[in-house]
What does this fold into?
Amino acid sequence: MLFKQSQIRTNLLVFALILMLGSVALAEMVKPRKYWADVIGEPHYSTLIPHQFGDWQAIPNGGKAMVNPVQEENLMRLYSETFARSYVNTRTKRIIMLSIAYGRDQSNDTQLHTPEACYPSQGFRVESRTEHTVASKFGPLESVRLMTTMGTRRTEPLTFFVRVGDEVARGSRDRNLARIKMAFKGYRVDGMLFRVSEVTKRDGAYELQDQFISDLLSALSPEGRRRVIGSVGT
It folds into this structure.
């Protein structure tokens, strides 16, 4: 009886080892060899995003006071490009801060860091999180709204979304599914984190951010929009 139990345990261990080796082999077989960024062309957001569109005008040196997506030492490892610019609404004089982080390789160890993680690391508190859909005329954008604060000195509501390959995906599960789908097509996906925020306690902050996003997308060419929202609306 003891011999049979020992044999069963040995067989189970061997079976588990075979499964593990098989999983490694399968992962290697479907490991992407090509970069999606090489198909659509690697974007350069500092030139792609216009300085003026609709009622929005860029503020010179307006990106210096923004929260960095990650600590400086990780920027080069995680991102191919980081871009920040502030815009003033010429009618209301309210200021929107735009931040974009782009990585040409969205493998598991080089994923974009979302504000849910990076804002607390910079001393902010996330007061609330709401899943939101930006109703742009080019199609719905699955996004997230956060209300963040730093003590009593700073209140910063923000909206962000993530493009993974040719899709806009809200949560980590959806982003992983987008990566897997592109991996089976032979591509290692790129990714872009798009964030807009305003330092304010006034009402209508999120609505203004939605308007900013819609105005910006309308100002881009179809190719430029694809680098921001993928195939949404096409």
Observations:
- The chain has a mean pLDDT of 84.
- The longest strand covers residues 125-136.
